[in-house]
Amino acid sequence: MDPSLQEFFRRQDESDDSQFYVVPRKVVHIDDHAIAALTGLYRQILSDGDSILDLMSSWRSHLPAELKLSRVVGLGMNANELADNPQLAEWLLHNLNQDRALPFADASFEAAVCAVSVQYMTRPLEVFREVLRVLKPGGVFALSFSNRCFPSKAVEGWLYSSDEQHLGIVQAYFKASGGWRDVTAEDRTPQRRRGMEDPLFAVRAYKP
Q: What mean pLDDT is predicted for residues 48-73?
């Protein structure tokens, strides 16, 4: 890896992530208004019958309750959290920073989502390529983030970037990983309450 990229993806805590996530954290990492905005995004891009891959999942996925999804699979780091997620039909323990290969066949899902966790990816281009592989043609990959994180586990390049730059970083991941179309970056923070709650940003793209 290029030395400058090595510096970008360096973390304050390079110890095994499984140790950091061994204790369940059954708290939401964005407030109710940002959660509602995230659910609104999912309502816009997902449809009844879709199969969903929830990457870096936890005890809540914030998917619209009214959608009749055919399959929701969560990949995450804490079994207790994943088992308590009522929207997951299946879940697997999987550390994307150690194993970027996704344990699914090609074209398995209509959509993949990753909520408030992209800042922890140390090899995002490989992950994005794997997501592209497991999506069906026309499938969407949507990533969301706010201004919160665990600083010791976020990559250095994220910590020293602004919210606007974060949008650019995730767009760059899509571009550099290749094969995506219609990359869209948005500030999804509720307009009426801007400045009074957690912001929410999202970047999504589609498999041709």
A: 97
